[in-house]
Design brief:
heterodimer; A: alpha/beta; 9-stranded mixed beta sheet; 15 helices; 37% helix; globular; B: alpha+beta; two-stranded antiparallel sheet; 3 helices; binds iron/sulfur cluster
């Protein structure tokens, strides 16, 4: 590893506190809302175990302390336990973000021995019919539930993640009930972000305003009920950007606290940044420290100097940093535009149009484009 | 508050000194609380074994000049429990 003395940028930018390690794009499921890049099938040069270990050492030395292992499905990597053990020994708080497929009791134990701190399992729906239609596997749901129980029994804190969209959001009561029964510590009810495969399917995923309001109200009723029962399970409800008045503070700001390393070693300020018309550096060619502090890509939207009007002079720019760059690009074609989700954006009409288009889209789950290698190859060629 | 009460960190949560940040942090699933010096000093002694009385005695020994230390510690524990950082048996 090269030792760098602090550069000018280093004195003004903070350290990356969060490292997301996307170990692989391989995955047995094919969720139509997957945030992986459309051309994932073209990227098959995964980092080796040794390369990942080097990334972990570099990130920890820079001050990163929270880390997630995700993908794709990280359990596909046979060296997962080895990487977890290394990360834990370096002092990371280690989160495994998984579909639950590829997990069994033996592996749960092996991960426990490696020092894994937390397992987050994603559920697609409350029942196996809907979950199967979404993920392209009829057996996956039962397997996920069994694994959620096993994770709990092994003594891990458990966060369940449910991606919401128009096809499952009306099941919210049954979804929460299921999470209570599984003994979750926290549940993320996250309306899907419309990037990657989700953007492709967006008019078939976005719920209606009425669906959204009903789901939020149901969540609030559950919060009161749980509090009354002395159950401290936390319910986090994430509204879809398309129905918000202001954009989210994406990743706490570009290059502020978060970095993702993709399967082939490309380093991104957020996991969907690959959609942007920019070149991102890779750990195969550059030290992580110089990527974070000195690269053009990480400095491109750092701070405020890059901001367009109306953000430039807006009082809220320290709160949301002008919103999401990926969303700005996907919708307006300009990655430096104000996020159109913001009601103050001159492009806000695009969001209104998308909502109207969504209301006209009557496709069933089966008619959405599944995230799989066959469909992906179409995008690799394009 | 009962002085015999024994607190432990919430299961799966971890307290850690971060050299890069020069402070204690409390780590939990996909999140982190950045602690000030006194919160770090108190939480360091919360081990699921010591009761509140011993905890205060230990801190009093380390910081003999701190006024109203017992009161501050008790208030902090109530607050930390309310936030879900610690639990008692
Ligand atoms: S969202 Fe679905 S398809 Fe995409 S990586 Fe996760 S489990 Fe696999
Ligand atoms: S104008 Fe820009 S800074 Fe102001 S609220 Fe909208 S996105 Fe945020």
């Amino acid at each position: 590893m090269t030792d760098y003395s602090p550069s000018h940028a280093e004195l003004s930018a903070g350290a990356p506190l969060w490292l997301l390690a996307e170990l692989t794009y391989r995955c047995p499921l094919q969720c139509p809302y997957c945030s992986n890049p459309l051309d994932f099938a073209a990227q098959d040069h995964e980092l080796t175990t040794q390369e990942w270990i080097d990334v972990l050492h570099q990130a920890r030395a820079m001050g990163a302390v929270q880390m997630g292992f995700s993908g794709g499905e990280p359990l596909v990597r046979k060296d997962l336990e080895e990487l977890v053990a290394e990360a834990r020994q370096l002092g990371f708080y280690t989160n495994l973000i998984t579909s639950g497929l590829g997990l069994d009791e033996a592996r749960i134990q092996a991960l426990r021995n490696a020092g894994l701190d937390h397992i987050q399992i994603s559920l697609q729906a409350a029942d196996s019919d809907m979950a199967g239609a979404l993920a392209g596997s009829s057996k996956a749901h039962a397997r996920k539930l069994a694994m959620a129980r096993a994770v709990k029994d092994a003594g891990y804190p458990m966060v369940l993640n449910v991606v919401l969209h128009r096809h499952n959001i009306d099941q919210i009561d049954r979804i929460i009930e299921l999470c209570v029964e599984l003994g979750a510590d926290a549940v993320e009810l996250a309306n899907c972000q419309l990037y990657g495969w989700a953007h492709l399917n967006r008019t078939g995923l976005l719920p209606s305003k009425a669906q959204l309001d009903a789901a939020e109200a149901a969540t609030e009723r559950w919060r009161e009920r749980l509090a009354g029962e002395g159950n401290d399970m936390r319910l986090l409800f994430v509204v879809p950007d398309y129905y918000a008045e202001r954009p989210k503070a994406c990743m706490g700001g570009w290059g502020a606290i978060f970095m993702t390393v993709t399967p082939d070693g490309t380093v991104l300020p957020c996991h969907s940044a690959r959609d942007l018309p920019m070149t991102f550096p890779t750990v195969r060619e550059q030290a992580l420290r110089s990527i974070w502090y000195d690269s053009f890509a990480f400095n491109r939207f750092r701070g405020e100097a890059w901001m367009p009007a109306p953000c430039r002079s807006c009082d809220e720019r320290h709160k949301d940093y002008g919103g999401c760059r990926c969303q700005a690009f996907l919708l307006t074609g300009d990655p430096a535009a104000t996020d159109p989700v913001c009601a103050l954006s001159p492009d806000h009409g695009l969001i209104e149009t998308a909502r109207e288009e969504a209301a006209q889209d009557v496709r069933s789950v089966a008619q959405l484009t599944p995230r799989n290698a066959r469909e992906s190859k179409v995008f690799c060629r394009a | 508050m009962n002085e015999n009460m024994i607190y432990g960190l919430r299961p799966g949560w971890r307290l850690q000194w971060e050299p890069a940040q020069q402070r204690h942090v409390l780590l939990y699933p996909e999140g982190m609380v950045q602690l000030n010096d006194s919160a770090g000093a108190i939480l360091e002694l919360i081990d699921g074994q010591r009761n509140v009385a011993d905890l205060i005695a230990e801190l009093q020994q380390r910081y003999p000049d701190a006024p109203s230390l017992g009161q501050d510690v008790r208030e902090f524990l109530v607050e930390a429990e309310h936030k879900g950082w610690i639990r008692h048996d």
